Structure formats: structure tokens, C-alpha cells
Amino acid sequence: MSKEKTKGLTSSRKRAIRANLTGYAFIMPNLIGYTVFVFIPVIFSFVMSVMSWDGSTRPMEFVGLQNFVDIFGDRVFRGSLVHTLSYALMTVLPTLVLALLLAVLLNSKIKGVAIFRTAFYFPYIASIVAVGAVWNMLFQPDFGPVNEFLKFIGITNPPRWVVDKDWAMVAVSLVSIWKYMGYYMIVYLAALQGISNSLYEAAGIDGANGWQKLVYVTIPMLTPTTFFVMIMLTIQCFKVFDLVYVMTGGGPGNATKTLVNFIYEKAFTTWEFGPASAAAIILFVIVLIITLIQFRGEKKWSKDL
């Protein structure tokens, strides 16, 4: 090989190495942050799930699977699991449907559409503490605006919302739907603008009305987006903490205590890091299983379409 070719290969290799180093330099801060604040704590949670430790100077004690046995025998944990599932069932589908309908409505050329889009998106960026505090005042059972309106339309004995164990989770779910549907509306809007108008024109030539275009054109074309939204909403619902903590604190009693609230109390109230880590691992497995089921369902759905 000639000296010129050797020099050219060396120079090309140096440029490739320099380009790789530049790329690594850009991702390194994020990689370091992810490693320190996510990866290492996750690994430590797996370790802590088989240990007994209260966070003091007392050394950790290996207990094997005893933490998991204790967790499944804990009535409060089982209740938290049921509450989390109930919250997900009451939240995922309504949020998805409302986000889709809003996106379809606001994808048309109507006057002031930008204002409406901003108005529906605003709750998502609002402070969760402010949102919880304001809605608690709106749901105030004796003289809150919500119950005053219900009395005005003839409901003489309206729900007591966040102070009633039967209605507290419903109130939290309603606020969650209101807060997050604007974000997923934006996701659907982006997907809608990628659908070719020729599909709607062809459907119109075949005699399809607006509803038929929605069912047979829009919804099938939004399948990947719907799958993404469903996955994100499911994960979001299973890790809900802040909204419940602000609005009800897990009460009344334990009526709205979710898995993450249970984990928080175990870890930072009673300082039982072992059971808290075991509960976190169980939550991880539950979300993983549900996600895998949704992946499989999405593949089958896509084939049928």
C-alpha cells in the first residue's frame, strides 16, 4: 500500500474518532445524570428488595424473599394495588378518547383554533400543587362550586368528593383526565397532520360521511399513535403519586392510597426500605407485563387492519 493511501486512511480514521468523541461529549452529561439518578438507584432497589434496613447505621441484613412475602400479606399493599388498578381503569380510556376527539375537532380550520389548543394544553403545564389545591376548593362538599352547580340542577344530595371514600378516587381521576388530555391532544394533532388528504377525498368520493371517515380512515391511521398514548397513560397511571398526595394524601383512610404512595410511606415514613423496594419491584413487573400484553395486542390489531 502506498504512503499516500496509508496517510489517507489514517486521516480518515482520525476524523471518525474525532466525530465519535464529539458525539460522546454531547451525550455524556445526560448519560452521567441517567447513571447517577436512575440506573444506580434501580440496581440498588433490586438489592434492597432482599435486604432488611431502616436507613440507620445498622448494617443491612439479607432476608431473601421475606420482604415479598410480607408485602403480599400486607392488607394496605393489596388495597393500594386495587386502588391503582381502579384509577387506571377510570383514567386511561376516557383520557385517550377525549384527547382524540379534541384533536379531531381542533384539527379543522375554525376561528381561534390556536386559542382553543392553548387553553386545552395549559392544564398540563400548570403546577400540580396549584391544580390539586384549586380542584380541592372546587370539590369542597358544603359550598364548593361543583356541588353548588349540582344542587342548582336538582341533585339535592351531591357527592362529598375527596372526603368520601367512595368518591375520592373518582374526583382524583376526573382531575387527572382534565389535566393530561391536553398533552395527548397535541400528540394526536401531530399524527393527524401526517394523514394524507387524498385518503379523505377518496372516502368522500365513495360516499363516506364525517363519522365514517373518522371510523374507517382516521382511527386506523392513528393506530401507532393510539398505541403510544395507551402505553404512556398506563405507565403514568401506575406511577401516580403527586396528584393523589396533594388532593387526598391517600385518604380518606386509605381509600386513594396508590402503590407509589404506599412505597413512599414505607420508605420515608416508617423507614422500611426493604419492603418499599420489594413493592417497587412488584410495580415494575406489573407495568412490564401490562406493556407486553399491549404490545402483543397492538401487533394483532395492526394485522387485522
From TrEMBL:
- Where are the membrane-spanning stretches? 21-48, 85-106, 118-138, 167-192, 213-235, 276-295
| One Pfam family this sequence matches | BPD_transp_1
Domain of life the protein comes from? Bacteria
Q: How does it sit in the membrane?
A: Multi-pass membrane protein
- InterPro entries given for it? ABC_transporter_permease, MetI-like, MetI-like_sf
Q: Which UniProt keywords apply?
A: Cell membrane, Membrane, Transmembrane, Transmembrane helix, Transport
Instruction: Domain (ABC transmembrane type-1): give its ranges.
Output: 81-294
One Gene Ontology cellular component: plasma membrane
GO biological process terms held by the UniProt record: transmembrane transport
Give the UniProt subcellular location, in the record's own words: Cell membrane
Per the record, the similarity remark reads:
Belongs to the binding-protein-dependent transport system permease family.
**PANTHER family in the record:** ABC TRANSPORTER PERMEASE PROTEIN, INNER MEMBRANE ABC TRANSPORTER PERMEASE PROTEIN YCJO
> What protein name is recorded for this chain?
Sugar ABC transporter permease
